[in-house]
Amino acid sequence: MKKWPMFFAIYFCVCLLEACGASGSGAPVPGGAPSSEEQSGGEATQPAAVTTVCRVVSNDGSLLLAGMDGDPNIYTLTPEDDTNLAAGALVEVTYDGTVLESWPAQFSGVSAVETAEGGFDDRCALYLQVLEDLWEVDSGLNGDVTYIGVDLSATSLTDSERAAVAWAFAGKHGGELVTGTWEELAEQGYIDRENLYWEDGILFSIAEKEMGGVYSLTPVTFDAEKWRSGLGAYFFFDCTSVQTSGGHWDGYTIGGEAIS
Hints:
This protein is α+β, with helices and mostly antiparallel strands. The protein is built from 5 helices and 13 strands.
């Protein structure tokens, strides 16, 4: 009868020794993940480099970029080397595949920023200039503004380009950015629909218009407006700009102006 306690004691010691040996053999701990060395057979792996194409929206030492090819994000990037990249250029950014979740977003582990071939189009810079010109006229409408609304939904800019232009403009003037049409902002409670008034904000909008005829260069016609109330607004009518063969929008002319 006394042999059984001795047997269980020996069996317990054997199991304990096997467990200790397994814990030091490099086997994964339950709930843990294998190291990069274990995944690669003993050699540490490096993150795969990723290259993405973006549009330069502005360059003041730090690049403001709009994602291309369906990428809705906007990015800020300060290259290690001085760069003369102009607004409108396409760039290829090579990074480690990680994007920091900020707004604008930021690339992690950038290893190269290079100009992409072709595709130059500085319509973003054109519309930023239009918004600035609207800000300057009838400046009394800009007083006591907390929110700056921007509506570029009726332009041919991509979603990311619209977001970048709106962010740059609102940030320059210290306002909290909201985007949307007049109706959308009224629905969200920013604009007092009944009294036609935005007490603590002002809405800037640009809307492109169709043009008939055949042209040797590419033109665009648009209206632009800043709106504070039914009795406080300023309008640019029938503005026209022409894109050169190199992709540059060479300023714009205003067909007419109005105030209410």
